[in-house]
Design a protein that fits this description.
mainly alpha; 2 domains; 5 helices; 0% strand
Length: 141
């Protein structure tokens, strides 16, 4: 399952890069938001492709060396590593929460209402996602 997701990620990067390059030639230089769309898609696609290449290289290295594959599998299923990853995820959730709150406040102070409302919306989605995930995980466990 994971390898299929990684393959889809790599393919999504290729598609995004190709669409970005194609849009660069299709969309005339009008100025405004549409002028930046091809560059954003190309950069996003190149980044995702890079992640996909790293996954592919890692998979091939593990396939060539059975000892590394076994060690990698043990580390992935080790309870201590799972707890560390859960605590790290929880800590980064709080860092992101405070960063979004600070960004919303900074935009509000700069009187940039659109950016402030957007960041407050993302902050709201961030908090709601926590509540939904807690409820779902309580039912599962």
């Amino acid at each position: 399952m994971k390898s299929k997701i990684r393959l889809y990620t790599f393919n999504a990067g290729i598609i995004s890069l190709a669409v970005g390059i194609a849009l660069r030639f299709i969309i005339p230089e009008t100025g405004g938001v549409l002028e930046y769309l091809p560059h954003i898609l190309s950069g996003f696609g190149a980044g995702i492709m890079g992640v996909g290449v790293v996954f592919i290289i890692r998979k091939r290295l593990i396939e060539k060396n059975p000892e590394k594959a076994k060690e990698y599998e043990i580390n992935e299923k080790d309870e201590r590593n799972i707890q560390i990853n859960e605590k790290a995820g929880y800590a980064t959730w709080y860092v992101t929460l405070f960063a979004l709150a600070a960004m919303s406040l900074a935009f509000l102070i700069m009187e940039n209402m659109i950016a402030s409302l957007l960041s407050l919306g993302v902050l709201l989605v961030h908090k709601i996602s926590l509540m939904i995930c807690v409820r779902v995980f309580k039912k599962i466990m």
